[in-house]
Amino acid sequence: MRPLFSSSSVFFSFIAHKLLYLFQCRVCCFEQREEMTNQNVVVSDEESAIITLTLTNSSLFSPAVTKPVAIPGGYVTISRKKLLNKLGGGGGEGTKINAWVDSMRASSPTRKSAPALTLSSETEDQKSWILHHPSALSMFVEIMNASKGKQIVMFLDYDGTLSPIVEDPDRAFMSKEMRETVRDVAKYFPTAVVSGRCRDKVYSFIGLSELYYAGSHGMDIKGPTTGHKYKKGNQSVLCQPAREFLPMINEVYKALLEETKSIPGATVENNKFCISVHFRCVDEKKWDALAEQVRSVLKDYPKLRLTQGRKVLEVRPTIKWDKGKALEFLLKSLGYANSSNVFPIFIGDDRTDEDGFKVLRKRGQGIGILVSKVPKETNASYSLQEPSEVMYFLQRLVEWKRSLLSRH
């Protein structure tokens, strides 16, 4: 009989993971209750007004996301699109700033102390969300069965996926073990890192030349310079659809640096084709002042738009380009534009990763995996709780591929 694990290190990692997972389940429930108590709103990308997160039954590989239904005790979502539209609509400057700050609070709830979690306190929302977005680890065999006969292509976010979320964005380092794991994945599958960060910055964190890098939310793409040569497509890709915005981005970056320097904890990051205003270390009482300062700069630049992530405001060009477009471009570059023999896997933790998840839903190919400890409205089919689980999923993927190759 063939052993289940080809190395003892992976076996012991599996055992340790299972023990850790039991503990994390309790922590997950605690954090979910904490966020629902302190900020009972989730901002949605959908057009709906108010809906609960609990989902109706749907296939794990359904090309469309089933609309949630309301249940007593559930928490609500509001349309992010409608909320952000208030920023550019009528109602005066005060209304715009209030809507902006409300959106910041909705997407980045402040954690406060909460009662100790008991074993019986897991909510129906949590159970329902896990039911419809099961762990990619527990469903690993099913996922691999769905990929049989197809080329797996990996798309990975960086912050919160390959590295932990940290207070200082310049110190978001990935572990050595994660780096080796990603290197191993790239030996067997075309692998791209798709991040909101500047491409050069992401490369400095990862340092693997055999990967595809898509920085600035996919607006700056470059292929690998070394490593495995895949049979299909063009490796020497370069795509910069927002190049004409570079002078404007640099101008706005300097203005934001000057304008926000009076807000303690605010950090402005130039990601080449977009700008990130981090407020993770800003006192919530100062969020309205920060929103006003960002607004005062952007009002003179109608060709730039504002989006949001996890405690970050993103200033981006108004072109129709995002992580989903980057995913499609890379699949085309690899020779899989209209192929039915490809199985893309997109793993990410942030709202901007939803653009990639949506593309996979629309194509009816591959899967999206959301990295989150709390329920979120998402187009992903599966979930993982944190970067350590992402690493273990990738390690299992490598072991699975090696096992297949050893049979031939």
From TrEMBL:
EC numbers on record: 3.1.3.12
GO biological process, one term: trehalose biosynthetic process
Keywords: Hydrolase, Signal, Stress response
Pfam families reported for this sequence: Trehalose_PPase
Signal peptide: 1-25
Top EC group: hydrolase
InterPro entries: HAD-like_sf (IPR036412), HAD-SF_hydro_IIB (IPR006379), HAD_sf (IPR023214), OTSB-like (IPR044651), Trehalose_PPase (IPR003337)
Pathway connected to this protein: Glycan biosynthesis; trehalose biosynthesis
Cofactor(s) in the UniProt record: a divalent metal cation
Catalyzed chemical reaction(s): alpha,alpha-trehalose 6-phosphate + H2O = alpha,alpha-trehalose + phosphate
An annotated Gene Ontology molecular function: trehalose-phosphatase activity
SUPFAM superfamilies per record: HAD-like
Family according to the record: Belongs to the trehalose phosphatase family.
Cited function: Removes the phosphate from trehalose 6-phosphate to produce free trehalose. Trehalose accumulation in plant may improve abiotic stress tolerance.
Protein name: Trehalose 6-phosphate phosphatase
Taxonomic classification: Eukaryota, Viridiplantae, Streptophyta, Embryophyta, Tracheophyta
